[in-house]
TrEMBL record:
This is Dipicolinate synthase subunit B. It comes from the Bacteria. InterPro entries: Dipicolinic_acid_synth_B, Flavin_trans-like, Flavoprotein. Gene3D superfamilies: Flavin prenyltransferase-like (3.40.50.1950). One of its GO terms (molecular function) is catalytic activity. NCBIfam families: PRK08305.1, spore_dpaB. Residues 5-175 form the Flavoprotein domain.
Length: 194
């Protein structure tokens, strides 16, 4: 097993937490050294998809380390060079907008800012209902940003949610490996049968 220091940041797309937890297990199995990071919403909100406390305990069990759950805990990621790659999975439209506009007011956006200052890769696994609407411009802006990469994504329900996009969580490890080589895993936009 190759030892790559991966940050795995969860944002509040709670309906994808089952897939994200599976991806977390795969990342841990592949890379070994994984630090869980959670947004304030992830740390505080109990939803029909589970209790926040239970989600964080599962992250800590998988990673065998404490969750980074505050801006002060995330800030040292940059100056101490704590990560080789940072994955935001799931990455919500809210977080996409903040990253695109340089807003650093959450644990996850602070982790990303601190990490990017080192010129290291940031990988985004998007999951947002407005990706082909209000979030489209933020996706475009981030695709043009140095050291930012995407897990390939597709429309997850073109009929019921025509502006929604979700990452293919089974491609997280491949996207991380590509980003560590300085390249975007292709194709980034997947068809229904890919």
């Amino acid at each position: 097993m190759e030892q790559i220091r991966v940050g795995f940041a969860f944002c509040g797309s709670f309906c994808t937490y089952g897939q994200a937890m599976s991806a977390l297990e795969q990342v841990k199995a592949r890379f070994g050294d994984v630090t869980p990071i959670v947004s304030e919403a992830s740390a505080a909100l109990d939803t029909r998809f589970g209790a926040a406390h239970d989600h964080m305990r599962e992250m800590e069990r998988i990673c065998d380390r404490r969750v980074i759950d505050s801006i002060p805990k995330a800030e040292p990621i940059g100056p101490k060079h704590l990560l080789d790659v940072l994955l935001v999975c799931p990455c919500t439209g809210n977080t996409l907008a903040k990253l695109a506009c340089g807003i650093t007011d959450t644990t996850v956006t602070m982790a990303a800012k601190a990490h990017l200052r080192n010129g290291a890769p940031l990988v985004l696994a998007i999951s947002t209902n407005d990706a082909l609407a209000a979030s489209a411009k933020h996706i475009g802006a981030l695709m043009d940003k140095k050291n930012v990469y995407f897990v390939p994504f597709r429309q997850d329900d073109p009929v019921g949610k025509p502006t929604s996009l979700a990452a293919d969580f089974s491609r997280v490890n491949a996207a991380i490996e590509a980003a560590l080589q300085g390249r975007q895993l292709q194709p980034v936009v997947l068809g229904p049968d890919q």
